[in-house]
Amino acid sequence: MRQQGLLVRWNDNKGYGFVEPDKGGPAVFAHISEFRQQRIRPQIGDRLTFNLETGGPKGPRAIRIEAELEPGFRPESRHRFALWSPAFLVLALVSVGSAVWTADKFIVPRLTPAPSEQSAPAEPEAQPQSLPSPEAATDTFRCEGKQHCSQMNSCAEATFYLNHCPNQLTDGDGDGVPCESQWCN
């Protein structure tokens, strides 16, 4: 037989609470798994209908629980974080604003050449820079066990190491130009 009652305690983190039956008597245990409307989170003060199961090891228990919904009530309005809640809208606006600010400060300047980098149409194209002469750097640098571009401090040093030191890993594509993405570009 269906009974009615009021939800008087609820622990949402653990998914259980207690219903006080309208007919009186001790509070009845209610678990989230027994709610038929899975999309609705129970709240204290909800009017519920349920079947009573007795004889369990922990006392009476509400089963096949249904919330008595008011006319015009929409279950999705009970979600903790509804899609159109004010908190969600503020979070969305802050996220969009942050993305625009980040793009404006960090991405757009890198994509737009500085005025000094823009060449006038009448100017001839700049000639590619030649690599520093390894012979000139011989008296400046010594083989000290460096093998990677991240250990170098200049294109001249990377070129010296490539030409004079063993076990070099500075010329990944084997074209004779070391550290192309870091120093000698």
Describe the structure.
The chain has 185 residues and is α+β, with helices and mostly antiparallel strands. Helices cover 22% and strands 18% of the residues. It has three helices and five strands; from the N terminus they run βββββααα. The protein has helices spanning 86-111, 134-137, 155-164, and strands spanning 2-11, 16-21, 28-31, 47-53, 61-67. Strands 1-2-3-5-4 form a five-stranded mixed beta barrel. The longest helix is centred in the middle third of the chain and has 26 residues, at 86-111. The chain is elongated.
Short description:
The chain is α+β, with helices and mostly antiparallel strands. The chain is built from three helices and five strands, in the order βββββααα. Helices cover 22% and strands 18% of the residues.
Descriptive key words:
185 residues; alpha+beta; five-stranded mixed β-barrel; 3 helices; 5 strands
Mean pLDDT: 77
- Total number of strands: 5
Q: State the order of secondary-structure elements, H for helix, E for strand.
A: EEEEEHHH
Strand content: 15-25%
Could you give the order of strands across the largest sheet?
1-2-3-5-4
Radius of gyration: 37 Å
> Structural class, please?
alpha+beta
Percentage of residues in helical conformation: 10-25%
Low-confidence stretches: 77-81
Count every helix, treating DSSP H or I runs of 4 or more residues as helices. Answer: 3
* Biggest sheet layout: 5 strands, mixed, barrel
Distance between the termini: 83 Å
Assign an overall shape: elongated
